[in-house]
Amino acid sequence: MTLGTDRVNKVDRLAELTARRDGDAEGASLLRETFGRLRRSPMALSGAVIVGAFLFVAVIAPFVAPYEPGAQLWGREVMPNQNVFVGPRAENWFGLDHLGRDQLSRMLVGARNSLLVGVVATLLGFTVGAMLGGVAGAAVSLGRAWGRRLDAVIMRFIDMMLAIPALLIAVSIAAILGPSLPTVMVAVGLAQVPIFARLLRGSMLAQSHSDYVLAATALGVRRPRIVRSHILPNSLGPVIVQATLTLATAIIEAAALSYLGFGNPDPATPDWGAMLADAQRFLVGAPELAMYPAVAIIITALGFTLLGEAMRESLDPKLRK
Amino acid sequence: MALLTVDNLSVTFTGNNQRPVRAVDGVSFGMDEGEVLGLVGESGCGKSVTSLALMGLLPTRGVEVGGRVHFDGTDVLSLPSRRLRDMRGSQLAMIFQDPLSSLNPVVPIGRQVTETLRRHKGMRGRAARDRAAELLDRVGIPDPARRLTEYPHQLSGGMRQRALIAMAVACAPRLLIADEPTTALDVTIQAQILDLLGELARSEGTSLLMITHDLGVVAGLCDNINVLYAGRVIEVSSRKQLFASPHHPYTAGLLGSVPRLDAPRGEALTPIRGSINDTIDWDDGCAFAPRCDHYTMECLTGTPELVRAGEGHQHRCVNPVNLDPGSAHADRPDPVAEGGNVR
What we know:
Helix content of chain B: 25-40%
Order of helices and strands of chain B: EEEHEEHEHHHHEHEHEEHHEE
Number of domains of chain B: 2
Structural class of chain B: alpha/beta
Distance between the termini of chain B: 35 Å
Structural class of chain A: mainly alpha
Oligomer: heterodimer
CATH topology of the largest domain in chain B: Rossmann fold
Largest interface: A-B, 26 and 37 residues
Number of helices of chain A: 11
Radius of gyration of chain B: 21 Å
CATH class of chain A: Mainly Alpha
Largest sheet of chain A: none
CATH architecture of the largest domain in chain B: 3-Layer(aba) Sandwich
Order of helices and strands of chain A: HHHHHHHHHHH
């Protein structure tokens, strides 16, 4: 008899399963589905953990840093010219740098500056780029003659920006503003503007030739509304992914500019790029001084790249499993 | 008075440094209020371009549109774009081939249905939502209130096409153009969608222009049929006459190439030779001549005219077939009278 009831139970369970529908009760938007997939992706998870950890460190840095990042603790004991350094020890976990400052404190506070530069630069590039690209894309999608002319003007300007090397822009801006963190932010951000602009415009143009835009047109929906509620929301996906990936490059580029001396010259506000530049001179005597910021830069960039790649995969229908 | 009159419509695509392509070459037909007309032809014969031209949806650059299209007395082709946009959706509406790509993937169904209502009826909020639910119910979507909040990818293919039909009929248009509405669907769903379209056209008095390559579709639905070849109408007929005695060899060939359930076992299908070729036009005679079994030298002297051959039956052929009743295909039953399907 037990066998019989088992079978009945199984049939009931199957019936229940077939009766249930996916996404019950309400619709799941593309965005929500994407985040659902993202949560299950190991790549996205590891990326998010790395990024989250560094962001956390950046936020709490001033409160947990054991010393002032600019304070010279052991000026006499460190003699860089004789290759005498203070290595890791209980009071200074990462040791002291060539001027006798606590390397750990500088790393922590440096995380704050480096991440800040990366985020602000990306935001700047994203905002300006998406605005330019969005205006150009919307102008073309509206399908008027003046729209195409406006688009041509904006895009030629973007092409000009693309033609100037990012480093040259950075040097010019530094010459105008003087070396400082904002200089690095603006320089790295400006270099990203053309990429965001081209991406959003291209994506909007592709969407404006899609079938549902034709279908909406056939139903008499006005062009501005089509641009606003059909074309734009469908074009944002790749731009958001690009923003995440840009965070990684922005941090690397910011470090590079800072390494070249365009960053904040104030020794009390360290960032990883500047620390790398300082440590480079003592690579023979104290290679670990260069390793800390270098590894930190690599891991942060890796975290953002993992997150961005996972996002790209979960947004791209062709790569969905 | 005819609802829609298409007079000598021609569409030419002119690319940079390319030979212009005449996609539609002098198409003329008329539609009465409430009529269901089939526009049949193979890929590349100009049927989709014709429908886009009727809606004024062709791009303005690189396309030359000639002839006249009169809808209820107004000339659609010369209408300012503002007036045309007002007409689209409220007077003229269109259903497209692929229901998935015709719906915006990131916008819930409800907002896409209410969009037309907002645009043409000025409906807002609750009223628009209720009307949208009514519409979904009308086209046979179960549990419409919940479907309104769902996204296109959560609906099946048939449901998506139903939602598109609901969007198209939302403002009770007088002419509904369906451009291959069943091509992307499987066969059982096709039949349901065709039934729905036929039923909507009958009950609302909407004229339906059915554009398809599938003779089975027109067989079950249309009152009259126009057969297109290489951008021209080559045969005009009622459904019954067309299936019983096709006069143009192309139409006869099309019917002969459709498999029939009542054919004897092992009987081979008779295909039409070759394929449509857009480099052949109607300037020096019949464009179908290279593929025709009946062609003579006469076919290649000047463009053949539409010839009247009986009540409401016209063809564009110098050597028509099946002119006398009782010839080759006269035994072919009217598919609807038989309750069957030529597919």
